[in-house]
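Pilot study result, target chain (760 residues):
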Amino acid sequence: MITYVFPGQGSQQKGMGQGLFEQYRHLTDQADQILGFSIEKLCTEESYLDLNHTQYTQPALYVVNALSYLKRLEETGRKPDFAAGHSLGEYNALFAAGAFDFGTGLRLVKKRGELMGRITGGGMAAVIGLNKEQVTAVLEEHRLHAIDVANENTPRQIVISGQKKEIEKARIVFENTKDVKLFHVLNVSGAFHSRYMNEAKQEFKQFIDSFHFEPLAIPVISNVYAEPYHQDRLKETLSEQMDSTVKWTDSIRFLMGRGEMEFEEIGPGTVLTSLIHRIKNEAEPLTHAPEKKLALSHPEAADHPHNVQAGITAESLGSAEFKRDYHLTYAYLAGGMYRGIASKEMVVKLSRAGMMGFFGTGGLSLNEVEDAILTIQGELGEGQAYGINLVHNMKHTESEEKMIDLLLKHQVRNVEASAFLSVTPALVRYRAKGVRRNPNGDVMCSNRLIAKISRPEVAESFLSPAPENMLQKLLGENKITMNEAELLRSIPMADDICVEADSGGHTDGGVAYSLMPAMTSLRDEMMKKYQYPKIVRVGAAGGIGTPDAAMAAFMLGADFIVTGSINQCTVEAATSDKVKDLLQQMNVQDTAYAPAGDMFESGSKVQVLKKGVFFPARANKLYELYQRYGSIRELDAKTLTQLEEKYFKRSIEDIYEDMTLHYPVAEIEKAEQNPKHKMALIFRWYFRYSSNLAISGNEHSKVDYQIHCGPALGAFNQWVKGSELENWRNRHVDEIGKKLMTETAALLHERMQSMYQPSH
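Predicted structure:
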């Protein structure tokens, strides 16, 4: 196989294109007409316009690359198997793949160059000798937060981008850093491929939207994702490229992993040829995706059933509409884990990678949640998806109302509703404040709900419009308007539902193979009953920790998947290193069920880690005592001593005294009047205590750690055993998500291909 690679800025030189302009005179004339100046003079005459200014560099390189490609096509009579381009060169790769004609590509490049040329005051520099992680670590250590990694050219040639004064600060730092062989400031006019290009990107987004792109005839590797372009996201990905890192190293590694691959540089110079040579010497191939025409989107593929699976990529899995609505690259979500274990850092990292995470609010104060929201919003740009997890509080509905007030105040648009047994007034109010009609008269809701469900009756309540009695109640309290109530009657309470099979934390122990078909069928019934104009998507959660499990979910019809337990054992998870060390060692059989502390009296269960801890056994013992006895006083002396010395490590009196200082007065009064309720409060204290021990990493009470976890993490640990991901310190949520989706696509490709094998 052969890949054509097209160079970007830095490869321009006076004299380039000589002979080509005359050979392709009609295209040269077309270029002059589009640009308003002579492209031939720009490339060949010293006294003409400045070829090194990005406004002129970009169209000049595009034209010379394009004409060089056409000449090579005439010489060989065949297209390459793959195409890739470095930054600007990616437009030539798309031209070669048939995404647009010569003139359209030039118009796009002309606008791109003009917009990027307006952003001045920036600079770039190449750091030779350090890898990406080392460069990032140096920037972090020296608080050079205003600098971004712009290009990953080779494993040890990293280009950084930022304001000129920041680049100068970086020069001093890197020149005094061990193993740095060279710090070379580039002769550029702007901070390309960094956050400083965001303004240009936003304007380019509007410009590119009016253009029509044809289906790709060959796969083109994206700079942004180091994987093949997906047809549905051509325009979006080209826009993202302007302020994203050029992942050239991984792009070449991806192509190396497709099998025996030759690379041919098309255009002026040999810059890319040199980079590819170094990558081959310094890095291993990436073999995680199928080998055959991954980005193929050409209609001709429909004529060949055995090629249907060739279009399966990580980006193509799941519902395209779902991904568009949430501005996602992948149909991949990470659920909210309580006490902020699903952290701010986790949410931001996933969002920047084209996935969505939910911040875990359960057990946190409103101030802690507000701080997290503000941090996340400050880190992310417009259109980058994030969400907040909202856990139903059966006993304290006022806290749920206050949480909704906070979400509305800060215009949080995506909420994951967990542990709800039915729709509540607070959820109805959240939906109401985002509902409106668009210019076409369609009812739209900007406040989205993704409801996590495992029971049909709960699913039905979220698949129905807001309950009429709640609408009337909220109207009577002047919490919603008549117009909002009327609009809510025509849409479901949830935009999407997530079917949660047996999982870590609260669980009904459901089986995905039974739940998914039942819930999908129920969704179809409710769509028919209420005649909703837009389909409610159905996602899958619970037990997803390997490509095999994710593939099963998608094959069962999941529009998206949600992971949970596997994200708790990552660098970004806000729990202790001690917990992560324990989780890294677990296997699929190392979990157990225990009472849920927040729903102790009802007997609801959570799934927790049992390997290396006593918490499940002790928690179940407390529930057994609660069921058997009417008060603490009824317990025998031996049992009381065991509880105080082994479980609580405090006296019952001390615990209760502490509770009187922190619990609402009404709660304490109820406990004084009801001995069994008092016992429940004291026993529930242990659950909060055990959770705090785990999150803080208390060295002396490890056996009492309460760690919510499902078997998915055990399966994940086995999957990555022997790789660098075996150690949790190398696990990052975004990389895990991308790896899981990529290898799921590869596995699905393989399985579908085997299904089409002819019988002999």
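One observation from the pilot: The first helix runs from residue 20 to 23. A full batch analysis is planned for the follow-on phase.
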